[in-house]
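User: For this week's homework, look closely at the record that follows, marking any run of repeated tokens, and judge whether sequence predicts the tokens.
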Amino acid sequence: MIVSKPPTNTIISFTIFLVITLVVLIMNFMALMRGAFWYTYVIIALLVPIAILVIIKIFLRYKIIRMGNNQIELHFPVLGKKHHYSLKDITSWTENVVKTGRNSVYKELEIRFEDNKKLSFGHKEQTGYDRMVSYLTQKANKKKSR
């Protein structure tokens, strides 16, 4: 069974970023209580949307993907959701490869299911990316879109 999740160092770095952001926000709210300068409002107005975006995109959308036994399981631990799909439920899948500069390549895997759900992630976003592509090539090659 192939288990894929975001790299640990990515989660750690975003957690550190959110802790620093929270400390700066608390300091600015305390300064706001004592009498604010104009830049306190600017800092709060910039940091709150950034922190909310990071929480939504990184932590609430945290997913663990398991492939094996002709099934794909998506698990969202923070939201408490699980989706199970058979390989027969795949309508199509593609791997997009984009050259981004000097000897650098960005790869993205997109899987579409019969219930109109779409799973997409890049090779730097999830571990086990190459193993998942080879598994899909081996088991569901007929459903690969070109």
In short: The mean pLDDT is 91. The chain has two domains: 2-60, 64-143. Helices lie at 8-34, 38-60, 129-139. The chain is about 40% helix and 30% strand.
